[in-house]
Amino acid sequence: MEGIFVPLVTPYTASGEVDAAALEKVARRCLEGGAAGLVALGTTGEAALLDGAERRTVLEVCRAVSIEHGTPLVAGAGAMGTADTIAQARERAPLADALLVVVPYYVRPSDEGVLDHFAAVCAAVDVPVLAYDVPYRTGKRLTAETALRLLSLDRVAGMKLCPGAIDQDTLALLAARTGKAVLCGDDAYVHPMLHLGAAGAIAASACLAPEAFAGMAEAVRTGDTARALALHNALLPMVDALFSEPSPAVLKAALAEVGLIGDPSVRAPLHPPRPEPVTRALSALHATRALV
Ligand SMILES: O=C(O)C1=N[C@H](C(=O)O)C[C@H](O)C1
Fold first, then answer.
1. Is ligand 1 within 6 A of the CB of residue 42?
2. pLDDT interval class at 83 (50, 70, 90)
3. Whose CA is nearest to atom 6 of ligand 1?
4. Is residue 36 part of a domain?
5. pLDDT in tens, 25-34
6. Sequence-ordered list of residues with C-beta below 8 angstroms from that of 93, at least 6 positions apart, any chain
7. I need a surface site. Which of 23, 50, 184, 241 has the fewest CB within 10 A?
8. Is 180 a residue of the active site?
């Protein structure tokens, strides 16, 4: 798994249903913009705020677009408990090339508990699993040592790392060169993480600027450091604006402004964003366009 994977928003119609046509449009646009693949039902897709039928619709739309483009589809899965996570993983695996399974949240299990959780999920499905480490959301932080033990599980193909920083554990994990993919999930750090050996990223901001993110990853890969840095510097203010309020509220408002989705709404308890970060994201987007 290499390159920029885009976790898609879930657009709604004015009457609040999943807007399959808008989702298809955003998905196609991301792949045409150079994304390596799509992620359905991630944090950005408000997966926790959809019902079962809606999650199925999202997966089916993303599956169809991925097949059309010959690119991989990653599906988010994960609950607080192991049994519920396995049920979700079994349901979604047939429609996905890999599963993005979040570290069990809220209950704060021990490291051994986390490892057993992933071993049980891996044993229940026959697709690769990406472990999703996002301690500011889950309440459970993984050390590099535990992350390396996780990566040593056969079916674990890699990790999406979202520690909110490039910390000692991140550096140790990347330095270990396990051969498994480390994907950056902190949009602001994609550029330095690629230089440090990350295989790619799962970045919500790439929904709005797929060309710039894909171009940055390609520039790092080909050694065009000046171009990679220019794109990183241009993207940073956009990322800052997009994450200045709980995601994906600003992102959806910006996508609506550029006409990619019809309705910017997010589901409760998320709130619509203030206008200021949306304007800021759009003017930063404009600056990135000059570089792609
Ligand atoms: O949708 C996702 O998955 C993402 N998760 C990160 C988060 O937890 O906020 C951010 C990333 O850009 C996309």
1. yes
2. very high
3. 185
4. yes
5. 999 999 999 9
6. 75, 99, 125, 126, 127
7. 50
8. no
Residue 75 forms part of a structural domain: yes
Q: Terminal CA-to-CA distance of the chain, rounded, Å?
A: 24
The stretches of 77-224 forming alpha helices (DSSP H) are: 82-92, 111-124, 135-138, 144-151, 168-175, 190-195, 210-222
Amino acid at 57: T
In angstroms, the CA 292 to CA 281 distance is 17
Q: What is the pLDDT of residue 20?
A: 98
106 is catalytic: no
Q: pLDDT tens for residues 177-225?
A: 999 999 999 999 999 999 999 999 999 999 999 999 999 999 999 999 9
Tokens read off for 201? 């990223």
Instruction: Determine if residue 44 is labeled as part of a ligand binding site.
Output: yes
Would you state the pLDDT for residue 55? 98
Ligand 1 atom with minimal separation from the 45 CA: 1
Does ligand 1 have an atom closer than 6 angstroms to the CB of 203? yes
What's the domain count of the chain? 1
pLDDT given at position 18: 98
**CATH code of residue 27:** 3.20.20.70
Q: If you average pLDDT over residues 137-162, what whole number do you get? A: 97
* Residue range of the domain that includes 189: 3-209
Confirm or reject: Cβ of 185 under 6 Å from ligand 1: yes
What is the 99 CA–ligand 1 centroid distance (Å)?
A: 14
Q: Is residue 266 part of a domain?
A: no
Residue 265 lies in a domain: no
Identify the pLDDT of residue 188: 98
